[in-house]
């Protein structure tokens, strides 16, 4: 069996095995557990940045123009009596852009300017993250401020401390807007403090007209740990091709490398999409 002169990134064959040079110890994030989630967030109330209550009260229709996940908050806690497992609490902050249709003074239906609001969605999952609670000290980036701690020497040689608890990673696709409507909801408002009991008195008032959206969210939640793994290595990963650049002198040369976009002129049919006919 002959060997290739050089192994490049991509699929390898049996003839590449003889090019293995060494076993390398690397420090990587190993996935200990993960799960995929398909959530339908039904009738979530939109909290608008601006005061749009008059628009909501007079609207004959509302639609969502755009939705995106702008932040994800997450924390974890040990699961009692189940070693190595953690409760992962995840909260998504979703930005939505809505447009209202209403009748003007002449009776014509007009559209409002886009209005920005936010939806919060929370969920909890249980994942395996293993055990191990040690302190890790690593050198500080010279371009970052030194660590602040009691008794630390801010001079040369300062190390920053961190724990080795599992790291939460959340991958999420942009939400699918399934429905947007105006709904009457009962809202809870604070109406004073009971000084004797030290409690906040709350009361339900309404119902109030609010915008609610139904969103579909696909996400993958992982627990990873920084570990050392021994892996086989072929060589350093040298670039195996020259960079292609576009300059004022050769714009047409670059254009010649681009395939003609036939799909833009002849949109693919249903059978061109995998699984479309089955659904």
Task: Tell me about this structure.
- With 279 residues, the chain is mainly beta.
- It has a domain at 26-133 and 161-241.
- It is built from 3 helices and 11 strands.
- The strands form 3 sheets. Strands 2, 3, 4, 5 and 6 form a 5-stranded antiparallel sheet that branches.
- A hairpin with a 6-residue loop joins strand 3 (59-78) and strand 4.
Blueprint of the fold:
Blueprint: E1 22-45, E2 47-48, H1 53-58, E3 59-78, E4 85-103, E5 109-111, E6 115-128, E7 135-139, E8 159-163, E9 167-172, E10 176-194, E11 199-233, H2 251-256, H3 262-265
Antiparallel strand pairs: 1-11, 2-6, 3-4, 4-5, 4-6, 7-8, 9-11, 10-11
Low-confidence stretches: none
Straight-line distance between termini: 47 Å
Task: Please give the radius of gyration in angstroms.
Answer: 28 Å
The secondary-structure element order is EEHEEEEEEEEEHH
Q: Number of helix segments?
A: 3
Q: Which structural class is indicated by helix and strand composition?
A: mainly beta
Based on Cα principal axes, name the global outline: extended
- What percent of residues adopt helix (DSSP H or I)? under 10%
Q: Mean of residue pLDDT?
A: 82
Largest β-sheet summary: 5 strands, antiparallel
């Amino acid at each position: 069996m002959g060997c290739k002169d050089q192994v490049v990134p991509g699929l390898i064959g049996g003839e590449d095995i003889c090019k293995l040079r060494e076993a390398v110890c690397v420090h990587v994030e190993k996935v200990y557990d993960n799960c995929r989630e398909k959530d339908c967030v039904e009738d979530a109330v939109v909290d608008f940045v601006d005061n749009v209550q008059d628009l909501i009260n007079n609207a004959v229709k509302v639609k969502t123009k755009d939705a995106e996940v702008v932040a994800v908050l997450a924390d974890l806690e040990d699961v009692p009596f189940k070693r190595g497992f953690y409760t992962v609490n995840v909260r998504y902050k979703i930005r939505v852009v809505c447009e209202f249709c209403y009748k003007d003074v002449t009776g014509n239906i007009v559209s409002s300017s886009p209005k920005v609001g936010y939806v919060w969605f929370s969920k909890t999952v249980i994942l395996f993250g293993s055990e191990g609670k040690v302190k890790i000290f690593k050198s500080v980036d010279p371009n970052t401020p030194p660590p602040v701690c009691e008794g630390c020497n801010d001079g040369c040689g300062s190390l920053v401390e961190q724990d080795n608890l599992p790291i939460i990673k959340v991958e999420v696709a942009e939400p699918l807007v399934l429905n947007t409507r105006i709904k009457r909801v009962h809202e809870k408002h604070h109406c004073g403090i009971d000084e004797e009991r030290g409690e906040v008195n709350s009361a339900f008032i309404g119902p109030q007209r609010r915008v609610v959206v139904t969103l579909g969210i696909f996400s993958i939640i992982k627990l990873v740990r920084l570990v050392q793994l021994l892996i086989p290595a072929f060589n350093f990963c040298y670039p195996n091709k020259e960079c292609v650049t576009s300059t004022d002198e050769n714009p047409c040369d670059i254009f010649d490398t681009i395939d003609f976009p036939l799909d833009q002129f002849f949109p693919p049919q249903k059978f061109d999409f995998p699984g479309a006919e089955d659904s």
